[in-house]
């Protein structure tokens, strides 16, 4: 049994119109997708986590024509929205991948500051390979790590500080690990408000932690 960690990046900025309405508002922040399911009529139900202004979130969700129904719950840890939404062909295809390819998604799937989703998929190598081919063309994939799944061993992300995780996400999203590279230390430093030397030091520590996890 294997796992693969990756970023799911909407090429058109958002997974869904309702997602975009919330993302563009300064008073509400997307945190995670906890669960989702495609219904027989082609719509989808999704449990989302937010932070920020609960009243503003209810206004945004209630006024959105792509939200068929919803229910909000506010707790000490965040704001949760159980919503039934319209789903175009790409979203239906994406949400149905785990069932069709016998994969398990380790939830929650966290949003990055730049709007991508950090996802861990668990299954056998064949299922993972076939699922990658099923991802709609409107979504990009950036791989972070892969290996044998061990529920008793923390993943490499658990060994990183929150700041290191932010730096890693930014480096991946800006193309630092592309071939050829699409960015450099200085451009990352400008984006993260750090010095280029600090970025380089962080990335070396991050890469060391990830490689030690993959090659024990």
State the helix count.
7
Q: Work out the oligomeric state of the chains in this entry.
A: single chain
| Fraction of helical residues | 25-40%
Rg, rounded, reads 18 Å
What share of residues are in beta strands? 25-35%
Give a count of the beta strands, DSSP E runs of length 2 or more: 9
Largest sheet: 9 strands, antiparallel
Low-confidence stretches: none
Structural class: alpha+beta
- Average pLDDT over all residues: 84
- What gap, in angstroms, lies between the N and C termini? 17 Å
Topology order in helix (H) and strand (E) letters:
EHEEHEEHEEEHEHHH
What's the shape? globular
Describe this structure as you would to a colleague.
By secondary structure, the chain is α+β, with helices and mostly antiparallel strands. The chain is built from 7 helices and 9 strands, in the order E-H-E-E-H-E-E-H-E-E-E-H-E-H-H-H. Strands 1, 2, 3, 4, 5, 6, 7, 8 and 9 form a 9-stranded antiparallel β-sheet that branches. A hairpin with a 4-residue loop joins strand 4 and strand 5 (79-85). The chain is globular. The relative contact order is 0.16. The mean pLDDT is 84.
């Amino acid at each position: 049994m294997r796992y693969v960690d990756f970023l799911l990046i909407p090429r058109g900025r958002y997974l869904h119109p309702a997602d975009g309405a919330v993302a563009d508002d300064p008073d509400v922040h997307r945190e995670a997708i906890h669960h989702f399911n495609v219904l027989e009529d082609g719509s989808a139900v999704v449990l989302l986590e937010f932070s920020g202004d609960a009243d503003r979130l209810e206004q945004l969700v209630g006024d959105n024509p792509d939200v068929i129904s919803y229910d909000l719950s506010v707790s000490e840890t965040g704001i949760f929205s159980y919503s039934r939404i319209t789903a175009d062909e790409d979203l239906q295809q994406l949400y149905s991948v785990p069932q069709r390819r016998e994969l398990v998604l380790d939830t929650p799937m966290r949003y990055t500051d730049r709007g991508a989703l950090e996802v861990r998929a668990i299954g056998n190598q064949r299922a993972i390979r076939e699922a990658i081919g099923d991802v709609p063309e409107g979504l990009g994939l950036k791989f972070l790590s892969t290996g044998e799944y061990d529920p008793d061993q923390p993943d490499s992300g658990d060994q990183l500080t929150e700041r290191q995780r932010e730096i890693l996400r930014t480096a991946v999203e800006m193309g630092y690990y592309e071939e050829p590279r699409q960015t450099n230390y200085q451009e990352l430093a400008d984006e993260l408000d750090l010095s280029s030397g600090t970025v380089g030091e962080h990335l070396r520590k991050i890469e060391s932690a990830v490689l030690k996890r993959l090659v024990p």
